[in-house]
Amino acid sequence: MFKNLKQIIMPLAGLLRELEFGKYLKGEDFENYLLKNKLIKIWSDNKLHSIAQIGKSQSDISLIIFMNVLNEYLNKDVYTIEQKQILTNNINFLIIKFFEFYIKKENLKKNYSELITELENLSNEGLIYQDTIKDIKNLIDKKEYKEIIVTMESQNIENFQEQFDYAIITALEEDEMEKVLPLIQKEGEIKDSEHLIEFGYVKGMPNKRVVYASQHSTGIIDAGILSAELLLRFRPKYLIMVGVLGGEPKETKIGDVIVATKVFTIDKGKYSDLGFQREGNYSSIQSIELKKIARSKLDIENYINGNDPTRSSKIQVHFGPIATVNQVIDIKGYFEKEITPIERKAIALEMESFAVVRACELVNRGTKPLIIKSVMDNTQGKTDNAKTYAAWTSAKTLEYLLLNDII
Fold first, then answer.
1. pLDDT in tens, 97-113
2. 152-403: in CATH 3.40.630.10
């Protein structure tokens, strides 16, 4: 019926964890099932010692006991055909019942594709019936979700920390966040913040859950404050800043996308009789994801250019250091005079990114920062005419990365 029972214990345990049934299963429900199927002796033999039960809810205890019962089954060396059939029937029954417990309590829409894939894999081993998969798919299809406005007081903050892989931040609501919003299916907002912090998921991908907000004002201070709040509240896997910046005049053109490999400031230093002596203030961005983005460079460019056939000048994706400054720069030759001598490979400048990356370093090193901004000007002859287009190419880059599981 199935090849090796010991080989399937881990994927089955993973499946049960995916269902999170331990959170909702009542001990007496499970015990009734065991009594009905004459398994109460195994249940009794695996009762937790009283000391081990301290601090655990009844549902947690039920989950542990069930796993012990499951181990008891799966570690038997000899099975008759009848025993294998009973085991398979029991597991299929439990999987359906546990999923019923789970989905009745679930209020937030999720992508269950990984769960279905895991069930299909176990079906290939002969452990899960196709009818079981069909029943679970029906439960998913019939589930209705309502848009929820959530306050932090009514939810345990740990739940939020588990829910969001992505936190997206922009310096501006107009243009920058406006171009991000079409990517996201909103589900609610956080009520006890001075910022408008909303949450939801990437459209068409409910498993990619997102929390997002824009700054009240541009600049490094507001960027640091908002970044710290998102990191402390949600501890996302990624903190992503998108938007617009000024590009290095000789290397970039309007709409080009800049992915930061390093961020640095140019304002820190010391004034003396010798004048202003600058001090380097750097933060590097090093991650596997950055390499994956680099490998996808041509695909990203084709994706953006393919969605905008009206432009004869095709955009490019660049990787390099970005300078963070405290002023809007509109001076010819400024980049070559003030930025390049500090960092010869610098590719762009703007007013926020250093604070975003530094916040990850100081507040939660488990969060990976990503800076993805597009060129709206070349720091000279400045106008806002290209801001909308640059914000769009930045958002389309993020869209490609999310939809294609690059991050």
1. 767 766 766 666 677 77
2. no
